[in-house]
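Hey forum,

I'm writing up a methods section and want to include a predicted complex as supplementary material. The small molecule is S-adenosylmethionine. I've pasted the protein sequence and the SMILES. Can someone with a working setup run it? I'll credit the forum in the acknowledgements.
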Amino acid sequence: MGTATEPEPKLRGDSAVDPRDQQRGPAVRAMFAGIAGRYDLLNRIISGGRDQAWRRRTVKMAGLTGGERVLDVCCGTGDLALMFAFAKPSPAGVTASDFTPEMVELTAQKAAKAGIAMPLCIADALRLPFADASFDVVSVGYGVRNFQDIDAGLRELARVLRPGGRVAILEATPARGVIGRFANWYINRVVPWVGNRLTRSSHKAYSYLADSIQLFPNADALKQRMEQAGFAKVRYRKLNLGTMAIHVGERS
Ligand SMILES: C[S@@+](CC[C@H](N)C(=O)[O-])C[C@H]1O[C@@H](n2cnc3c(N)ncnc32)[C@H](O)[C@@H]1O
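Reply by user p_vandermeer:
Happy to help. Structure tokens for the complex are below, copy them as they are.
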């Protein structure tokens, strides 16, 4: 939503999924099911091969000290969850969850190939099937933007973390200025053109990607919303010329 200082972002509006629709969960799931098989390839292409480095940085900022119970929410094809599993000092275990079965299946295949025993679960991030304070670290890579209700989702992440536990969120962030104009052109024009074609996405998933980034809170606003959801000591680091951000915080 635009404010007195920030104009309403101009959306492409050609995706079958409207990122403003708070009932879009089933449509988002169907959209990700449709692109699951080509999701990794597109990540590598549209990030210029940088996406795994951003996930590595996220693991680093989560600051593992060894023995943590980690939950990766919105795991997709499992790249961030697997990075946590291989991190040093080693966590006690990594659980991965996502509400798209086709994505969870790809995580299962990667974990099996890597010889990692990883508990997997098909679950909506807004209603996680875990008791309060079950985890020491919760991560989300490129998932929060898709939450039907960002604040409810952040509160749910806080609920399953133990007090003092850490959250790490990697997400695209709207950029401003000259770089913002170039980033907007790339995300709004190039990425949908390439992504929708290569995935043959009937939902136009990469148009949704562009529109959902435009509507996502900027890094300062996300920090504030994390604080309101129950996180303290929230800080963030921007990456990729300010077009990505990693936020970390502690469960109060
Ligand atoms: C852009 S992908 C990110 C995947 C992975 N974390 C990564 O780093 O590439 C977003 C994932 O979030 C999942 N997702 C979106 N909304 C969700 C929700 N409310 N609950 C659970 N999973 C959700 C989708 O199914 C999809 O697999």
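Some notes you might quote in the supplement: The chain has one domain: 25-251. The first helix runs from residue 25 to 35.
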